[in-house]
Amino acid sequence: MKIASILLILPLVVNGFAPALTSSFAKTSSATCDTILYADVASEVDVEVAVDPKEAVKLFGRLAEKYIMLDSSGGMCCYSACTDCEYRLPDGGYIMADQSAARPKWIPSYEERKFDSGKEHTSAWSQVLFISGPNVNREEFVERVKEMKFAPPLGGPYMSASKAGIEDDFAVERLFDVLMGDKLGEGKQVLTKHRMSKRIKEIAGGEEGLAWKHFEASLSN
């Protein structure tokens, strides 16, 4: 945010008194100053936006899910710790086809995913937020997020469903801005399914699902 320029007028005092300023801005009497110094001062101030974790978890508990589909090749592993297994991760873990949790843990980056094995999954956000078409404006996004069912998620401060009502739209609007990303700078105010999918994966650091840690951080940058 740019602070308006400030004009400083510094008259030199001559013979013990300062010059008088007239409506023509800076006329002086014959016995006064020889110089009027103008300084144009401008500075940039960065405004940090932070969302209360208790408000952020109200959003995460609406968008996150207990189940997520990952890599279809994961289901091809025999899980016998074979040497040089192509389905192992650098840290020794296995590439998983899908994962489940006891409570909502991930916001899927995809709209819909299907495997040849017959497994398929459609993300909740793609069904609820985009019920009337492939895009939403800010007002539609806010209202539809607020209408989504909340369940206490894994991550963030614990909150019961009875206390998870959203009374202040600030956090929801902040999430809209985060998902829009650099498109806001282009003057756009419509979020598409494709854009939301892409941004979720970016915020998640390339992972297929966005977990609490990265979700919360994205709202406070």
Task: Describe, in plain words, how this protein is organized in 3D.
The protein is built from 6 helices and 10 strands. By secondary structure, it is α+β, with helices and mostly antiparallel strands. It has 2 domains: 1-47, no CATH class; 53-72 and 98-219, no CATH class. The chain has a two-stranded antiparallel sheet. A two-stranded antiparallel ribbon has the order 3-4. Strands 5-10 form a two-stranded antiparallel sheet. α1 crosses α6 (212-219). The two termini are 15 Å apart. Residues 1-16 form the signal peptide. Keywords: Signal.
Q: Radius of gyration from the CA trace?
A: 28 Å
Largest sheet at a glance?
Answer: 2 strands, antiparallel
The helix-and-strand class reads alpha+beta
Main β-sheet, spatial strand arrangement: 1-2
Q: What's the tally of helices?
A: 6
Strand content: 15-25%
Provide the succession of SSEs.
Answer: EEHEEEEEHEHHEHEH
* Overall tally of structural domains: 2
Global mean pLDDT: 80
- Poorly predicted parts: 1-45
- Overall, the morphology is globular
Write the layout of secondary structure elements.
Blueprint: E1 6-11, E2 36-41, H1 53-63, E3 67-69, E4 98-100, E5 107-108, E6 112-114, E7 120-122, H2 124-128, E8 135-137, H3 138-147, H4 170-180, E9 190-192, H5 193-203, E10 209-210, H6 212-219
Antiparallel strand pairs: 1-2, 3-4, 5-10, 6-7, 8-9
Helix pairs in contact: 1-6
Signal peptide: 1-16
Keywords: Signal
